[in-house]
Amino acid sequence: MSHTYEELAKMIDHALLSPTLTVSDLDQGIELALAYDVASVCIMPFYLKACSDRLAGTQVKTSTTIGFPHGGQATSTKCVESEKAIADGCQELDVVTNISQVLSGNWNYVHDELQRLIEIAHAADRQVKIIFENCYLNEEQKIRLCQICSDLKADWVKTSTGYGTSGATEDDLRLMRLHSGEHVQIKAAGGIGDIDQLISVREIGVTRCGASRTKTILDELRKRLELSPIETVDSISGKSSY
Does the active-site annotation cover 187? Predict the structure, then answer.
């Protein structure tokens, strides 16, 4: 295999977003992410401060969601969410665009909201991923969002929340890579469940994947690379649909 463990593990944002996860589950999920040395833990906002404290001084970043899962909050509410997340130590903000306004063709609203949120994050030296929820959008709408995010210098464009009717598809990932600026990275979310899928989307140009099956994915990778298994808490992936 031409990829190293670090290259592939650092593509994963370990998702802890299911509303049924208990505090104990969240703590175990954070420890799992540390043990496997992934890119970040994407956690429910209420537990972000505890997560940030635990990850301080490590190579695993903290991330959380803004406007999750439908993007329908008022812009002012999303701004407050973003400011609170930053205060709680968030390093990467995964922001859901206002899907209703996209479908309505109210592009000025979409642009202005994303501009405000990206400016808040960048002013604090944080990074932003803009979630499209592609399962509800047509090709023209996806392209327009890529163009807006490129103009506003978003750090990533992201396919989905994992809670829509479908997740990342290779066609959407290729479309997003084609129509986003070179300075914009691509994140796949929903449906990346094994190491072969992770490698496949990497070859398209994806740099991050939201995953709850992190243990399954990276255990198989370590097996293929003939690395020793990691002893850690049991996987809680079955409790999340991300």
Answer: yes
Between 191 and 118, residue with greater pLDDT: 118
Is 158 annotated as catalytic? yes
* Phi, psi dihedral angles at 90 (to 5 degrees): -65, 135
The span from the CA of 10 to the CA of 18, in Å, is: 22
Active site (annotated) includes residue 88: no
C-alpha to C-alpha distance for 162 and 231, rounded to whole angstroms = 28
Q: What is the pLDDT of residue 225?
A: 96
Tokens read off for 222: 């370590």
Rounded CA separation 199/77 (Å): 37
Residue 150, C-beta contacts closer than 8 angstroms, at least 6 positions apart = 179, 180, 181, 183, 184
Residue 57, classified by CB atoms within 10 Å of its CB into exposed (0-12), middle (13-18) or buried (19+), is exposed
At 146 the three-state DSSP class reads: helix
pLDDT per position as a tens digit, 173-212:
999 999 999 999 999 999 899 999 999 999 999 999 999 9
More confident residue, 204 or 241: 204
Fold of 5-239: TIM Barrel (3.20.20)
Reported pTM: 0.94
Of 61, 78, 129, 158, the catalytic one is 158
Active-site residue among 13, 187, 215, 219? 187
Q: How far apart are CA 219 and CA 217, in angstroms?
A: 6
Instruction: Indicate the domain borders of the chain.
Output: 5-239
Separation CA 145–CA 132 (nearest Å): 8
pLDDT at 41: 98
- Which among 51, 4, 49, 46 is positioned nearest to 27, based on CA atoms? 51
